Amino acid sequence: MAWHITGDVDEFLTAAGAFLRARPVQNTLLLTIADTVRIEGPHVYGPGDPLFGWHDGEEAAVLCTPPRPPVLSAMSPDAATALAGLLGDDLPGISGPDTAVDAFVAEWQRRTGATAKVHGRQRLYRLGELVQPMPPAPGTPRVGGPRDLLIRWTAEFFREVGEDDPEVERFVDERLSYGGILTWEADGVPVSMASLTRPESGMVRVQAVYTPPDQRARGYAGAVTTAISRAAREAGATEVVLFTDLANPTSNALYQRLGYVPLEDRTVVEFAS
After folding, report:
1. Can you tell me the distance from the alpha carbon of 198 to that of 100, in angstroms, rounded to the nearest whole number?
2. Strand 3-6 vs strand 203-210: parallel, antiparallel, or unpaired?
3. Half-sphere exposure of 128 (CA within 13 A, CB side)
4. Phi and psi angles of residue 196, each rounded to the nearest 5 degrees, phi first
5. Per-residue pLDDT tens for 56-69?
6. How far is CA 246 from the centre of its chain?
7. 57: DSSP letter
8. pTM of the predicted model, to two decimals?
9. Euclidean distance between CA atoms 32 and 64, whole angstroms
10. Among candidates 57, 59, 78, 48, which has minimal Cα distance to 70?
11. Rg of the chain, C-alpha, whole Å
């Protein structure tokens, strides 16, 4: 039983797509990233060539879109250990479910002598019964919004969560193209935003929920998250998911009040020589 590595996203989805789509909630990142590469091309995330892998002995997969660290599906420690010898010796880090990441990191350090630092810990949530926040925040939702403002807010969001994504304009334009950004307006002025991934196997992921500092503590984040979650359900999504930063107790508490249920924790690790 062995890993298979390819640079061809279509080959990857042919081999691994069925089991990834059978659990779209847990595999949300692999599905949406692979779908973006399939639609927009292999260098959508950067000039480096992507890699995709699947294991023929268990339902396990990996994808790597440089300069971002590889993303692991759930997998056994044995599969993660074997994978650590197949992705080259110059990875920026690794991310995925805790058990898989722990095994990968241990083998990576043994092989390379690199040091590993936890960059962040995330929790995956799945929407159960959507709960309207009380009292409701003043304002109304709007699909889209001023492009320049959305780009600025998205850049600020990524800086706050420590990702500083260089592809902010692409991120915004892609979501505007399919109605995947919603703003909350109070007195006609945008005060908060949230976005959605494209639907994949009935699943969408809420992303980039952001309220500028001078508008916080007024209920706008809860309002826009509720509105975009409801819109996703009304458009036919059977699963709505999101990630939170475990270091942010405010967002974790908010999403649970709105009806999001915690499923599993994930770790992002950075490597350094």
Report:
1. 27
2. unpaired
3. 10
4. -130, 145
5. 999 999 999 999 99
6. 14
7. S
8. 0.92
9. 13
10. 48
11. 19
Average pLDDT for 99-123: 94
Tokens of 113: 């002598």
- How many CA atoms are closer than 13 Å to the CA of 85, on its beta-carbon side? 9
Q: Which two tokens stand for residue 172?
A: 């915004």
Q: Given pLDDT bands bounded at 50, 70 and 90, which one contains residue 1?
A: low
Question: Is residue 203 left, alpha or beta, with left meaning phi > 0 and alpha meaning psi from -120 to 50?
Answer: beta
How many Cβ atoms from other residues are within 10 Å of residue 253's Cβ?
Answer: 11
Separation of alpha carbons 271 and 273, rounded Å: 7
Residue type, 130: L
Residue at token pair 């500083």 = 164
Two structure tokens written together for 112: 């390379």
**Tokens coding 134:** 């009380």
In which residue are the tokens 């990857």 written? Answer: 12
Q: Determine the Cα–Cα distance for residues 256 and 69; give it in Å rounded to an integer.
A: 29
Tokens of 138: 């003043």
The total number of residues shown for the chain amounts to 273
